[in-house]
Specification:
Number of domains of chain A: 2
Largest sheet of chain B: none
Shape of chain B: globular
Number of domains of chain B: 1
CATH topology of chain B: MetI-like fold
CATH class of the largest domain in chain A: Alpha Beta
Distance between the termini of chain B: 48 Å
Distance between the termini of chain A: 35 Å
Largest interface: A-B, 28 and 20 residues
Helix content of chain B: over 70%
Number of helices of chain B: 11
Structural class of chain A: alpha+beta
CATH class of chain B: Mainly Alpha
Oligomer: heterodimer
Shape of chain A: elongated
CATH superfamily of chain B: MetI-like
CATH superfamily of the largest domain in chain A: P-loop containing nucleotide triphosphate hydrolases
Number of helices of chain A: 9
Strand content of chain B: under 5%
Number of strands of chain A: 20
Order of helices and strands of chain A: EEEHEEHEHHHEHEHEEHHEEEEEEEEEE
CATH architecture of chain B: Orthogonal Bundle
Helix content of chain A: 10-25%
Chain lengths: 353, 234
């Protein structure tokens, strides 16, 4: 099961003479993995995907399906992969001809092509579109056809470069779900580039975070969500509280001082300089007297209720405590009985970067 | 105004009368300009494709040179081709001067840059990601290039139409390297110039209309091909 499908080592890619857009030390993907590639715009995610698909000359070692990409026939390796771009990039022809194209260039017999095209179209519920011109499709239909075209060849590795970013959230979740299902039933490996972290949570078991051409974090999506590698990633994943802070050591203890002046001793290990404290909204709870008995003392904050944003699962409560605005996720039964509220968090849930 | 109507009537009369001399000139015009266009497609299209798909230092300079060559004055081309084909010129031994091949060569020199420049623009206007998409679907580079040509068909046919239109209507080069020899190198444009020179304005106008008619027929055929296979979106 742990066959390594793709391995990159010391891979770099330069655009123009000077600009290094990709600098990957090491990245391996095993067969059947569902990986999300996330990062801010311009981080090199799309370029990395294109380099994995051997579409650009690169430096360093890439091994695909156990073969050294520098020596193997690139077309043969590409034919075991499929890649989807942000635009559907359909040919100016019928839907049928579009899905048949990758089979035709592989020299399939017309009868086999027709059967496979029908199956691929049915997989994405667009059999009824077969005779339509590709140009006449809506955005969602076009992207479905593009997916059917990519999957018609039964790729072992599917590379998705934000193919759903132009679609509405409902269609998008549906398609992400369908691809996940197909990937699981066919044992396909998928690498999805996305800047929507919702997609990532829906889809992947592993999130690789990129920034300025490098991989800065490679972990489970939930870990990235709660313990992002740096401040920019924290903003990218929508961390509720990103508070400037200072870290001092007092004897054996590390003491954190938040921007508003709130101090607490930090139990976790810290490496490197620290500038902000990330606190997920669900780490902040309404004060409960039982919390006083916790083995590690919780940190309490008192403040004035500013705003309550309703939401499913949890509402967002904004509390002004001194110079600090905190965002806590509170149950929907919560209604502030006074203007002031007392919140508390376990210092272990705080994440310093 | 009267002359023009009379010329138009005479043009129809000439065509309907099946004057063999006129038909010789028409067929030679079509053969020469058609062949020159085909040669220009074979030369210009790969250059346009190459310019559109490859990045290399000095590309802009080369593109500007191709764009400049799209407007080469036929007389200048005629002059240089004459110098090459002249009996004592570098290609004089081939004996091509004052033959239809001399006109074909000159016209190909005129049309190749037009087709290269316009097909560069046509291929360049496709999404640059399309090439990557086709490669990633498993195509070899030949399959990619062929498909890109098909995708840019509208623009590429416009390039062919412009190329044909450029050569069928030029007179300077044909006159210089062909010599307007009756029955050998006389094409519609050189015939028109000659008739004007002789003061036969009525015949000149008639031939001019024939030229327009022939040119339109070819362009209409190419336009039909340009749009064939593009059914209405349903």
């Amino acid at each position: 099961m742990n066959e390594i499908l793709l391995a990159l080592e010391s891979v770099t890619f330069d655009r123009g003479a000077r600009k290094r857009v990709l600098d990957i030390d090491r990245l391996t993907v095993t067969r059947g993995e569902l990986v999300a590639l996330v990062g801010p715009n311009g981080a090199g995610k799309s370029t990395l995907l294109q380099v994995m698909n051997l579409l650009h000359p690169h430096r360093g070692a890439i091994s695909l399906f156990g073969q050294d990409a520098r020596r193997a026939d690139k077309t043969a390796l590409r034919r075991r992969c499929a890649m989807l771009f942000q635009d559907a990039l359909l040919l100016d022809d019928t839907v049928f001809a579009n899905v048949a194209w990758p089979l035709r260039i592989r020299g399939w017999a017309p009868r086999d092509i027709a059967a496979r095209v029908r199956r691929a179209l049915a997989d994405f519920r667009c059999d009824h579109l077969a005779e339509r011109r590709a140009r006449s499709l809506s955005g969602g239909e076009a992207q479905r056809v593009s997916l059917a075209r990519a999957l018609a060849v039964d790729p072992e590795l599917l590379l998705l470069d934000e193919p759903f970013s132009a679609l509405d959230p409902a269609t998008r979740n549906e398609l992400v779900g369908e691809i996940r299902h197909l990937a699981e039933t066919r044992g396909m490996t998928v690498i999805l580039v996305s800047h929507s972290f919702t997609d990532v949570l829906h889809f992947a078991e592993r999130a690789v975070v990129m920034e300025a051409g490098r991989i800065v974090q490679d972990d489970r999506p939930e870990t990235v969500l709660r313990r992002p590698a740096n401040e920019q990633i924290a903003r990218l994943v929508g961390m509720d509280n990103i508070i400037p802070c200072r870290l001092d050591s007092e004897g054996e203890n590390a003491v954190v001082t938040l921007a508003g002046g709130l101090r607490f001793s930090y139990p976790g290990a810290v490496s490197g300089p620290v500038s902000v404290c990330c606190l997920p909204g669900d780490a902040l709870q309404l004060w409960d007297d039982r919390l006083a008995d916790a083995p590690v003392p919780w940190v309490a904050v008192e403040g004035r209720v500013q705003r309550l944003l309703p939401g499913i699962g949890a509402g967002k409560l904004f509390v002004r405590a001194g110079d600090l605005t905190l965002c806590a996720r509170v149950p929907r039964t919560f209604s502030p009985d006074s203007e002031n509220v007392r919140l508390a968090f376990d210092p272990a849930d705080a994440h310093l970067v | 105004m009267h002359d023009i109507w009379q010329g138009l009537a005479q043009a129809f009369a000439l065509l309907a009368g099946g004057d063999p001399e006129l038909y010789d000139v028409i067929f030679l015009t079509l053969r020469v300009s058609g062949l020159a266009t085909i040669i220009s497609v074979l030369l210009g299209l790969p250059v346009g494709l190459w310019l559109a798909l490859r990045e290399f230092p000095g590309k802009r300079l080369l593109v500007s040179f191709v764009n400049f060559s799209m407007g080469l004055p036929p007389v200048v081309v005629g002059l240089f081709v004459s110098l090459l084909l002249w009996r004592y010129g570098p290609l004089g031994a081939l004996g091509l001067m004052y033959t239809p091949w001399a006109i074909i060569i000159a016209q190909a020199v005129i049309a190749s840059p037009i087709i290269a420049g316009l097909s560069f623009a046509a291929i360049g206007s496709l999404s640059p990601k399309l090439r990557l998409q086709l490669l990633s679907l498993g195509a070899t580079s030949w399959q990619v290039n062929w498909q890109l040509i098909r995708e840019a068909k509208l623009g590429l046919m416009a390039a062919v139409i412009a190329g044909f239109g450029g050569v069928v209507s030029e007179v300077g080069a044909s006159m210089m390297v062909g010599g307007n020899i009756k029955g050998q190198t006389r094409v519609l444009t050189t015939a028109t110039v000659m008739e004007v020179g002789k003061g036969n304005y009525d015949i000149a106008i008639a031939i001019a209309f024939v030229l327009l008619f022939v040119a339109y027929s070819v362009v209409a055929l190419l336009t039909y091909l340009q749009h064939s296979g593009k059914g209405e979106g349903r």
